[in-house]
C-alpha cells in the first residue's frame, strides 16, 4: 500500500471511529492527551505499547501467531499514524534490528508519531550496551532497560551492572529508565540511588494475573517520586480498558502514565477508544 493510500485509509478509519465515539458519548474529535515527563522528554500519559507487533500475546492459544500474521510493516506504520491522530505521542518498543529498520523507514516516509522509547532486551549481557547505542543512533528519545533483564541482574545481586547500564544511557544524553516484573525492584533502585529518570512498572505479572499482584504494583507506584509508566495493565487482554483504566487512573499521580498495546484485527477502534477513556478520566 502506498503512503497516500495508507493515509487515505486511516483518514476514513478516523471518521468511522469519530462517529462511533459520538454515538457512545465519547470525544468525537481527537486532541491533545494529558502529558507527563520522562526526564526532559514530554510524552502523552497514554503511550503505545508494542507487544502485539511482535506476537507477544502471553496467552496459551493462537493469538500470538495471529498477531504476527496481522502486523506486517505497513500495518505497524498505519497503527503508529493512527495513534498519533488520537493524541498519543510515543511508542515503546524493543531495539530489535527489524524494528529499527521499520522505524527508520517510517520516519523517512514522514510518519506522524515522532517519539520512540527504546526497551533493549538482549539475552546476552554483553549485547546490552550495543543495543542501547543502536537505539540512540536511530532516533530513540529515551531508553528503559527491559524488565526481565533487570530482574535477572537483581536476582544475582548485580546492581553494579544495572547502574552501569543506566549511567551509559545518561552519557548519551537520553532519559534513562528501567522496567521490572516485580513489585519492589524500583524501590530497591531508589534505596541504592540509581540515577534513573523514570520507571516502567509491570502491573500484572505474566505469571500472575491476580488482583493481589495489581495491588502490590500500585502500592509501589504510589511510593515513587519519579515518573512511572504502568504496563501490562490489561492482563494480556483479560481485563477490558473500560474497567482497567479507571481503577488505574485513580491510583496514578499526574506525573505517571500507562503503556498499552493494541490488536486492531480483533478490536478495530481500540486506539480511539483507549484515548477517549483517558480523555474522559482526565476531564
Tell me about this structure.
The protein contains eleven helices and ten strands. With 283 residues, it is of the alpha/beta class. The chain has a single domain, classed as NADP-dependent oxidoreductase domain (TIM Barrel), CATH 3.20.20. An eight-stranded parallel beta sheet has the order 3-10-9-8-7-6-5-4. Helix 9 (211-223) links the parallel strand 8 and strand 9. Helix 10 packs parallel to helix 11 (270-282). The radius of gyration is 18 Å and the shape is globular. The N and C termini lie far apart (38 Å). The model is unreliable at 1-29 (pLDDT under 50).
In short:
This protein has helices at residues 3-23, 63-70, 73-85, 97-108, 128-137, 147-155, 159-171, 185-191, 211-223, 241-251, 270-282; strands at residues 35-38, 41-44, 46-48, 90-93, 115-118, 140-145, 176-180, 198-202, 228-231, 257-260. It is of the alpha/beta class.
Amino acid at each position: 500500500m502506498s503512503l497516500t493510500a495508507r493515509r487515505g485509509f486511516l483518514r476514513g478509519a478516523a471518521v468511522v471511529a469519530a462517529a462511533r465515539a459520538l454515538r457512545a458519548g465519547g470525544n468525537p474529535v481527537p486532541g491533545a492527551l494529558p502529558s507527563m515527563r520522562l526526564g526532559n522528554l514530554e510524552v502523552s500519559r497514554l503511550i503505545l505499547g508494542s507487544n502485539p507487533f511482535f506476537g507477544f500475546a502471553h496467552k496459551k492459544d493462537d493469538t500470538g501467531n495471529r498477531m504476527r500474521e496481522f502486523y506486517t510493516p505497513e500495518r505497524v506504520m498505519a497503527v503508529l499514524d493512527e495513534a498519533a491522530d488520537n493524541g498519543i505521542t510515543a511508542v515503546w518498543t524493543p531495539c530489535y534490528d527489524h524494528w529499527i529498520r521499520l522505524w527508520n523507514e517510517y520516519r523517512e516516509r514522514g510518519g506522524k508519531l515522532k517519539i520512540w522509547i527504546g526497551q533493549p532486551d538482549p539475552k546476552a549481557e554483553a549485547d546490552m550496551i550495543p543495543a542501547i547505542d543502536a537505539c540512540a543512533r536511530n532516533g530513540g528519545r529515551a531508553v528503559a532497560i527491559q524488565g526481565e533483564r533487570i530482574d535477572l541482574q537483581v536476582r544475582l545481586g548485580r546492581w553494579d551492572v544495572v547502574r552501569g547500564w543506566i549511567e551509559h544511557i545518561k552519557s548519551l544524553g537520553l532519559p534513562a529508565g528501567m522496567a521490572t516484573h516485580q513489585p519492589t525492584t524500583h524501590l530497591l533502585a531508589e534505596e541504592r540511588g540509581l540515577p534513573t529518570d523514570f520507571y516502567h512498572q509491570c502491573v500484572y505479572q505474566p505469571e500472575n494475573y491476580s488482583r493481589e499482584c495489581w495491588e502490590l504494583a500500585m502500592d509501589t507506584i504510589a511510593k515513587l517520586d519519579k515518573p512511572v509508566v504502568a504496563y501490562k495493565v490489561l492482563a494480556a487482554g483479560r481485563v477490558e480498558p473500560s474497567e482497567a483504566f479507571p481503577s488505574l487512573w485513580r491510583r496514578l499521580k499526574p506525573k505517571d502514565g500507562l503503556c498499552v498495546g493494541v490488536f486492531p484485527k480483533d478490536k478495530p477502534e481500540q486506539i480511539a477508544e483507549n484515548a477517549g477513556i483517558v480523555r474522559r478520566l482526565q476531564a
